[in-house]
Amino acid sequence: MAFVDHLLDKQGIDSACTVVQIFKTWRILVHYMLDEDVPLPPNIVARIDLPDVTPRVKVALSPGQVAAVAAAMRKVAPRYEVLIWLGACAGLRQGEAFGLKRSQVAWNHDLLHIEEQRQRGKAVRLKTKASYATLPVDHFLIGRLLHHVSRFSEPEPVSPGAERRRRARGYAEPPDEGLIVTNRHGRPVLISDFHQKWRKAVKQAGLPDRTRFHDLKHFYTTTLGGSGKHDPKTVQALSRHAKFSETWDTYAHPPLAVEEVMVTVFGTAFSHIDAPTTSLPNGSTFLACASSAS
């Protein structure tokens, strides 16, 4: 109890959720000590009053709101617009969208190979085992990815003066890691930079201030579940949730997330958006419209 009181009084800890998380971690340590026959009295972590945690309010986004925040991001930071489509139409978490590479997209087969995420610019393991998957996606999303890659495959050019200053201070060009999305310097996206742009886009789109990027994943699962085209277990696999309850309580595996499944519901949801025309890596023309099956 004294430990929890100390956390509540400690400067810099202003979140009840943080206090509870610290306590849970400490409780694991105490249980481990008991299991290892360390002489401690039983129930040492019981009957401790913790602060009330206000649950995070999820924002239920409509297709129009998703399109609005994507359009706003197109103005705020055009390179980051496709991240919104990856969240809304593939259910990728923020770090997974940052870490998606061109080599992990099966362009002609409408598949994404989810293999890593980026944190602080570095490649790290995914959240859970269920997160690793070959994920079938809507043809609509492939079109958005192709349009993005055709425009933003290189860092933004700088003026001759800036180039001279770079050389003078020993500037090194960033290595090409094959990432779908990079910042304007060609480096991995940092969460601090994206969060700043996200807040601006949310405000310009007129969405609630509490709207988070993770709400796009809620939109993804809800749209799949509400379409009537996929059974509940398929929605769970597409959402890459380890437990069935996580899909339905929180939001509305095999190596290939779902065998022989074609996802078309997002092309239908965003059918009002102009479809960009671009080229596939093999040179053929691609129209990013909803598939005929939708």
Automatic annotation (TrEMBL):
Name used for this protein in its record: Site-specific recombinase
Keyword vocabulary terms for this entry: DNA recombination
Region (Disordered): 153-177
Keyword Hydrolase found: no
Domain Tyr recombinase: 56-266
Cleavable signal peptide: none
